[in-house]
Batch of 4 targets.
Target 1
Amino acid sequence: MADIYPPVSFYFEVRIAGIQTTGDSSFLEAEGLNVEREYETLKEGGENRFPHRVPGRLKFQNLVLKRGLMGTQSLLALWCMEALESDLGTPFGIMDIDVRLLNEKGSPLAVWNFKRAWPVKWSMDAFNATENKLAIEKLEFAYSYFERTK
């Protein structure tokens, strides 16, 4: 049976190499799958119609994962706390993170592998007594680069 096209974006999973995240890797949202080529603008003497644009380095946005508040004893929470509370005198884990878009059978349609990722920010959505919603935390990861492997 052929995969549904275009695929839906709500059926995805996150896997973190080196961390068993069974029951702890359900996320509401994954964002930051962006890459952009920087460029320099060079002006040439005598050429007044346009500046030259030359390609530069790639620029990656941080990976942001949102989920319901996790327990403090989960392996994912422990890794994040280790990195964010570190005085940088002792090394903390740097891991690869996979974001997998799944088909209706749970098989990956596309996989983005974020290389050498580490937690850089943890935040909570505002608490509001007038709303009835989940307590959502946001985890933000820096990484060296990402590649689509499938």
Note: The chain has one domain: 12-34+61-148.
Target 2
Amino acid sequence: MRRATRPAWALVAAAVAVMLAGCATPAGNRSGYEEETPVNEIVGEWQLTKGSDADGAWSINGAPVTLVIGDEAVSGQAPCNIFGGDLSVDGTGIRIHDITQTLMACDDDARNRLETRYIAALGKVTTAKRGAGVLDTLTLSGPDETLTFTIVEKKTTNQP
């Protein structure tokens, strides 16, 4: 009887190991993000939730900062001004360039500084990663820049 149970237990143990391996996160990807995200998966409207650059983390303090990503262009609301730019795609890498913006100064120096850092960071991003989970996030990053956004939900209006 012992000979019959040992192979059965070994088979059960092997099956459990295979099932658990299927649920595990791949070794190089423990962040909950895909390794690379195709740009067609990031098209939409996003709200900045946090950012950082070579000078450190940013204080957003409720500033309305958005990014609208299209197939070949971006636009949005910086802390003070609206902006737009071109979007180049190379595989899963992205480049935001030729950024233009309106020239209205904020009456708050902190928002002016945040805007300068935000626009500069957008011009330096090279990768995009979509987050997994309940809160749909997008992280754009470059050599020293990390911009984290949440998706802006589309609201439907009820027609009378």
Note: The domain at 39-151 is CATH 2.40.128.270 (Lipocalin).
Target 3
Amino acid sequence: MEDKWLYWEVTHHLHRFCNPVSDAAIDELGGLLDLGPETRILDIACGHAEMIARWSERYGCTGVGVDLSPYVLERARARTDKFEFVLADGAEYEPEERFDVVSCVGASWIWKGFRGTLEAQRDRVKPGGLILNGEPYWYTRRPPEAGEEEGFHTLHECHSIARELGLTTLWMRGATQEEWDRYEMLQATAVDRWARANPDHPGLPAIRAQHEKLKDDYLRWGRAGYGFAIWIFRS
């Protein structure tokens, strides 16, 4: 559709975290990352910044959030003033510093896949720092219905790729089915509410059509075919 960021704004408007994670998962991750007042975080595709805002409130950490959507950055800036927010393509953003933690959750398309994303994160983290990555994965193999553009890996393949890049796997947490369902179906509720409030919006037909396809894919083969995992790697 013409304005893809409007699509993401509409479908994810009800989400605090724009990925299949829960409050408990984010709290657990914050503890595992050894965060503190001196910790500097770079969060690529930061979305609404709920994750880093919570960590800043609890641990005092600061840093930079980067996203290409002007909609989410408006909400992120209203959420916390402890982070600098940059409107930019993550692949083109070249920070002047290296960070203690570099995060990219659910946006490996920025660097054309899991391997490219880990390489980019490795280039932006301090030696010995931590990489936080969130990525869909196939449970066993690619379902026949999935298009070739769905270039995911199995969990073991993800672990092997990280090891090939000189990273050490410290943690992996798969999303629960409840977290996945909530993430996917909350989008359906958000689209319905937005459509009822904006029945004459020129973008509504395209938003509905795209969402109906993705919803059908999830219920037809995605729910049984792939999961979502968050990883912590030591550089």
Note: DSSP finds eight helices and eight strands in the chain.
Target 4
Amino acid sequence: MHDSGFRRRVAALAASLLLAVSCAGATARPDGDTAALWGFVRLVPRDGVTPPRAGGGAYGDRRLRDVTLVDYDRPGFAVVWAEGEPAGGGAARDVALALSDGPSGVRIDPEHAAVASGARVVLRNDTRSAHTVSCPEAGLLRRLAPGESALLRGEPGSELGVFLLGEGRAESRVFVAPGAFAVAREDGRWELRGLRPGPQRLHAWHPRFPSAVRSAEAVRGAATRVDLELGVDRGEEAADARR
């Protein structure tokens, strides 16, 4: 009897673990009267162009020999935000940037970030020397002593470029999201929860491609998939020109 009960408990535990594994990565249904949207951000090259593979080859134009190749299999840093939806929750927290010493010199970490409208970007000098930094969009031009910080704010929908002056090419770009937003994972997957049911207008921002836009219907109590494509021929300006 004891052995039989033990086997039953082990079988139940195994079944629960199998269920958890099978559900990993799935999008859960939203609670209450809200809706959820999720999907993937994909990079698409210009029509008729076959890009070189990242990590192999180079751009044909010699003027672009120092340009980092785009890996079209992975979007890298991308932000998806919903028009008219408040950021809310933890999304409105401040974002921290840091000057730090790296193998090839001083760098700004992270290289890309996103912050909700109204939140602050805190830039701190974590090196042992003073450095001059600039952020034209925030009107910043300042020399930061070791341990010193500067606060930056940006207009909704703007991009804050933070630069280290006179010491290499270190920089960071921070997108100020006008509404509820999600930063895509490495594979491009994103998810927005707690949305109002009904028509939604989604935007995708990327540091190297024109922003994209797509309309979607958010269904009460459901998670709806919406994929967004980023590319020179698929930006918001290109979409407006085709109308």
Note: The first strand starts at residue 35 and ends at 43.
